[in-house]
Amino acid sequence: MQLRINLHSTSFEPLVALARWQEDQQHGGIANSAAEAVFVGRVRGVAADGCELEVLELEHYPGMTEQQLERLALDCCQRHGVNSCLVQHRIGRVLAGEAIVLVAIGADRRGPAQRCCQELLEALKHDAPFWKREWRADGSSEWLTGNTPL
Questions:
Q1: Separation of alpha carbons 16 and 122, rounded Å
Q2: Strand 141-143 versus strand 130-136 pairing type
Q3: With a threshold of 0.90, does the pTM exceed it?
Q4: How far apart are CA 41 and CA 127, in angstroms?
Q5: Which end of the chain is less congested by CB atoms within 10 angstroms, N or C?
Q6: Residue 136, Cα to own-chain centre: how many angstroms?
Q7: Quick check: 47 and 136 in contact, CB under 8 A?
Q8: Would you say 73 and 105 are in contact if contact means Cβ atoms under 8 Å apart?
């Protein structure tokens, strides 16, 4: 199984990262997957309290965060029997509208690819060690204590 996880401190283009991953799979000796499930998440322009959001800040603990993301991805991928996994996640200050996460799963069938992608997204949302702070248009900020609903 091929696994690629990267944290980005600056903006990234999800479709470019996806294209590179797909190319690497084709030329890296890994059997092409018959199915891919892909999710791109972007920062909403509205804070949890309904005010205009300018920036979402994500803090992490270097080293520990990468290990936990790898553990979450491996567990999920093994459970669903998929061929490959790509996780690209932002850290630092992310502007409203910018990509914050890309998850792509390659598998032999659509069912395992889709189920793994959704399960991994939920694991990232609830179990990844990121601390999130919303910065509103008026300059105020607030640390988030919960997650958004599915």
A1: 24
A2: antiparallel
A3: yes
A4: 17
A5: C
A6: 23
A7: yes
A8: no
Question: What element of type H or E holds 38?
Answer: strand 35-42
Residue 87, both tokens: 């996780």
pLDDT at 32: 72
**Dihedral angle of Cα 5, 53, 145, 92, to the nearest 10 degrees:** 40
The two most distant CA atoms of the chain are separated, in Å, by 52
Which residue is associated with the tokens 């996640």?
A: 89
Contacting residues for 107 by C-beta, under 8 A, at least 6 apart: 33, 34, 35, 36, 37, 80, 81, 82, 83, 113, 116
Structure tokens at 59: 């803090």
Identify residue 95 by its one-letter amino acid code: L
> Buried b / exposed e across 13-22, counting CB within 10 Å, b at 16+?
ebeebbeebb
List pLDDT tens digits, range 12-66: 999 999 999 999 888 765 567 899 999 999 999 999 899 999 999 999 999 999 9
Q: Are 124 and 116 in contact (CB under 8 A)?
A: no
SS3 content of the chain, % helix, strand, coil (to 5): 35, 35, 30
List 85's β-bridge partners, or say none. 3, 105
